[in-house]
């Protein structure tokens, strides 16, 4: 069972679609990630971009903990259906779902630069595809001047190829999951 951990919608259960199209971030990893984000002041009033949103657990957790808005991008139709249901169930203002591929969504103009980007691509997605997404973020006006980008990958994955506008801000391993952090360059 996936649920929102804390904040105004803490405890809300999220629908996880059947099949292998989603791999929700575990409660343990989300709690560690959001503790770091809260302590760093990355949530209060922030604009969040949740790429490969799946159930919406990351974007909705950010909204529950004080983010102003979250754009959740997901492609698979049956997953989008569950995502929309989760957004409705959580009842958090500021959530918007984009039913499209991440690359097509990022090729369009950004409605507003994101303070926080949470990217949880499928683990089998090749590194070069992740690098293309990061370049689209950097080149398309999607990043605020002082933005944080978090990429979740398998712990055996290589460091993301951060575009020049982003500098590496470390990584943290949790079991089979590794979170990579980068910030926009001042």
Automatic annotation (TrEMBL):
**Gene3D superfamilies xrefs:** Vaccinia Virus protein VP39
Q: Which InterPro entries match?
A: DNA_methylase_N6_adenine_CS (IPR002052), RNA_MeTrfase_RsmD (IPR004398), SAM-dependent_MTases_sf (IPR029063)
Per its record, what are the GO molecular function terms? methyltransferase activity
PROSITE patterns referenced in this protein's UniProt entry, alphabetically: N6_MTASE
The record's annotation in Pfam families points to:
Cons_hypoth95
Keywords for this entry? Methyltransferase, Transferase
GO biological processes: methylation
Q: Where is this region: Disordered?
A: 1-26
According to UniProt, the name of this protein is DNA methylase
